[in-house]
Design brief:
alpha/beta; 8 helices; 11 strands; elongated
């Protein structure tokens, strides 16, 4: 498969290596200084693009992919306020977008367990719940897209939590979220239910970028030939 990579930082380079290990060809790498290359034949020849850049750039990158007919897998987070525009563009250009807040298989298993745990804790209002995420100092958005997916999975099931707030703010009817930026930490997400009696903790710790990169390449292998907006649930469910 011919793959274009948009965003050629640390993650982009890991994706490059994993894609080649899986037998794919990288036909274009796009950075800030060569964005115009998305108009060139090499980029247009890609069967799929993988985009890991910055929240401010993601929307334009996705739209450009759709305009030139290249399906795109998006790992950038923090841009979902533009999702309606992306869905409209998908329809207009008959294109496809695959977006996930986190491409790690382990994290997506955590998402499902998190929802199950929230359902179980619905009637146990003596437990307060908090979410903490820790990432490297280069991460642009806070809280992380992964943390927001976890938060929404909890809020969908806990009636006594009306929303979420950022630490150190505390609201009794809101779920508190702490976003910590430290060193080169790839990503740690923790859900804590705490009462006067005990503590229940659900935690995922990434050991590197390889899990995220591999998941994005697997998504890129799955996406061509499909039309619309997709996510990890679509991919995981197709493999059951």
């Amino acid at each position: 498969m011919k793959i274009a990579i948009i965003g050629y930082g640390k993650m982009g380079k890991v994706i490059h290596g994993i894609a080649e290990q899986r037998g794919h060809e990288i036909v274009a790498t796009i950075e800030k200084n060569n964005v115009d290359d998305m108009q060139k034949d090499a980029f247009r020849s890609a069967e799929v693009a993988i985009e890991f850049t910055h929240p401010d750039a993601a929307k334009d990158n996705i739209l450009q992919c759709l305009k030139v007919g290249v399906p795109v897998v998006v790992g950038t987070t923090g841009w979902l306020n533009a999702m309606n525009d992306i869905k409209q563009a998908c329809t207009e250009y008959d294109g496809s977008v695959f977006h996930a807040s986190n491409f790690s298989i382990g994290v997506n298993v955590m998402f499902r367990v998190n929802k199950m745990l929230a359902q179980l804790m619905k009637s146990h209002k003596d437990y307060d719940v908090t979410v903490e995420e820790v990432h490297h100092i280069h991460k642009a958005d806070a809280p992380s897209g992964t943390a927001l997916t976890i938060v929404n999975g909890i809020l969908d099931h806990l009636d006594h939590k009306k929303g979420w707030c950022m630490a150190p703010e505390i609201k009794r009817d809101h779920l508190q979220v702490a976003a910590i930026r430290r060193s080169e930490v790839p990503g740690t997400h923790t859900v804590v239910y705490e009462s006067e009696i005990d503590t229940i903790e659900l935690k995922h710790t990434a050991k590197g970028r390889q899990g995220f990169a591999l998941g994005s390449v697997v998504a890129a292998e799955w996406l061509p030939g499909k039309k619309g907006v997709f996510g990890m649930d679509d991919l995981l469910n197709s493999n059951l």
